[in-house]
Amino acid sequence: MAQKKETPSRIAENKKASFNYFFEEKYEAGVVLEGWEVKALREGKVQLTDGYVVIKDGEMFMIGLQINPLRTTSTHVRADATRTKKLLLHKEEIKRLVGKVEQKGYTLVPLNLHWKNGRVKCDIALAKGKAEHDKRDTIKDREGKREVERAMKQRNR
């Protein structure tokens, strides 16, 4: 019996990250969550834009990811919206990232949260911050693409 390949579906995306950083390497990490957090993710009650990743004692943690609890969350569960979440990666990958993050200018940024085989995964990137002129170039390129699309749309009418 052939198994159906499930395409990852997006839960949340950090759109600011590509504007503020150049991405060097990308990794997919598992996320340790509580039950109420998974239910809130299914409802889309998440904000990823302020999140960042730190490495402490050989383990990776995501800080700033905000998962707002549902109103129907059980009363015996104390829901903390900004709880630090642990990320799961192989030891070799974490060691490689520790060496690179210690270099000047590199940081770990969460790119998106998605479902993969019924589990929540987070794409993280080893990133280097953009200078102000790089951000201006990004804006200029984006506006140029919009103008070309408008011209093509006008021409096709």
TrEMBL record:
| UniProt keyword annotations, A-Z | Cytoplasm, RNA-binding
Instruction: Cite the Gene3D superfamilies for this sequence.
Output: 2.40.280.10
Instruction: Report the principal subcellular site.
Output: cytoplasm
**One BP annotation, GO:** trans-translation
Region: Disordered, residue numbers: 133-157
What CDD domains does this protein map onto? SmpB
Listed InterPro entries: SmpB (IPR023620), SsrA-bd_prot (IPR000037), SsrA-bd_prot_CS (IPR020081)
What function does the entry list? Required for rescue of stalled ribosomes mediated by trans-translation. Binds to transfer-messenger RNA (tmRNA), required for stable association of tmRNA with ribosomes. tmRNA and SmpB together mimic tRNA shape, replacing the anticodon stem-loop with SmpB. tmRNA is encoded by the ssrA gene; the 2 termini fold to resemble tRNA(Ala) and it encodes a 'tag peptide', a short internal open reading frame. During trans-translation Ala-aminoacylated tmRNA acts like a tRNA, entering the A-site of stalled ribosomes, displacing the stalled mRNA.
What is the official name of this protein in its record?
SsrA-binding protein
Species of provenance: Ramlibacter albus
Give the gene name: smpB
